[in-house]
Design a protein that fits this description.
single chain, 279 residues, mainly beta, nine-stranded antiparallel beta sheet, 1 helix, 56% strand
Length: 279
């Protein structure tokens, strides 16, 4: 695990110095004009202009549908969440309104299934102690929300790495993977676009009106020098076993003599219909 953490930290420092005089919006918060989006952060403020000091016109709740009218060049950074401001339109009490909101308050992805709405978004940045070096680093957190009739039913939170891992984001609804009492499996992903930048996969099981977050999976590669990948094998996958999911890790590192060193491990988690535990 130490080579993996070391690679991440070195790439983070390189990118930090390269961008120290510039600020770029995280790619996960890029939203296209004339597209429908949803509010992720409850009580999101709608302002008269794209600025935190501008007059507040309204406050929108989680799951409120809005339409992106125009991305503005104004950028706001809160922790490691960096996003443009957007001009939006929306309906409320059968009336049409317009204003400006910060993109970091929008859902990175949203889906609807079986009468429920599911939202994926970034929530905060927390300073975490670095296990390899003195000092700390900014750890991002995200969450998946389950709503019914615009009422928050359940929510699970999880880590999403550093700011450079927020270049892309996806959110999908998968099958139940033949796990007992599981209706759906949600998969939230964030990833970077440079060497040594980690991608994070977060699986969330939907059991009735309850969300169950599985252990997070990480993938990172650095050209032909280093590669680390993690995955789950579910019951409906080749090699899967009933009411269990198997964690598999493979790591390849090239030494100073260009020899490849392999490391593999696996762990089986048993699912009893309500929760999981390591076998």
């Amino acid at each position: 695990m130490k080579p993996f953490l070391t690679t991440l930290f070195i790439c983070f420092i390189k990118i930090l110095f390269a961008q120290e005089n510039e600020i770029y919006a995280n790619g996960v918060f890029h939203f296209e004009d004339n597209k429908t989006q949803k509010i992720f952060t409850d009580h999101t403020r709608v302002r008269q202009s794209p600025d935190v000091n501008s007059q507040i016109l309204d406050s929108l709740k989680t799951n409120q549908q809005i339409v992106i009218l125009k991305k503005k060049e104004n950028i706001l950074k809160l922790g490691e969440r960096i996003a443009n401001w957007y001009k939006i339109s929306y309906q409320k009490d059968n009336q049409n309104y317009e204003g400006f909101i910060w993109g970091g308050n929008l859902a990175v992805g949203f889906r609807s299934k079986n009468g429920y709405d599911f939202l994926f978004g970034l929530t905060k940045t927390v300073s975490r102690k670095n296990p390899e070096y003195d000092g700390s680093f900014p750890q991002n957190y995200a969450s998946v929300k389950l709503l019914k009739d615009n009422r928050l039913v359940d929510e699970v939170s999880f880590e999403t790495g550093l700011g450079e891992s927020l270049s892309f984001g996806t959110f999908n609804v998968e099958s139940n993977h033949r796990l007992k009492n599981v209706e759906l499996t949600l998969k939230a992903t964030v990833s970077g676009e440079a060497c040594g930048i980690a991608s994070y996969d977060q699986y969330v099981l939907v059991k009735g009106e309850k969300l169950v977050a599985l252990p997070q999976l990480t993938t990172v590669g650095d050209a032909d020098v280093y590669y680390h990948t993690e995955e789950f094998i579910f019951p409906n996958d080749k090699g899967g076993i009933p009411n269990a999911f198997i964690y598999k890790m493979e790591e390849v590192e090239e030494d100073e003599k260009e020899r490849e060193k392999f490391k593999r491990s696996s762990k089986t988690y048993l699912w009893n219909g309500n929760s999981f535990k390591a076998k």
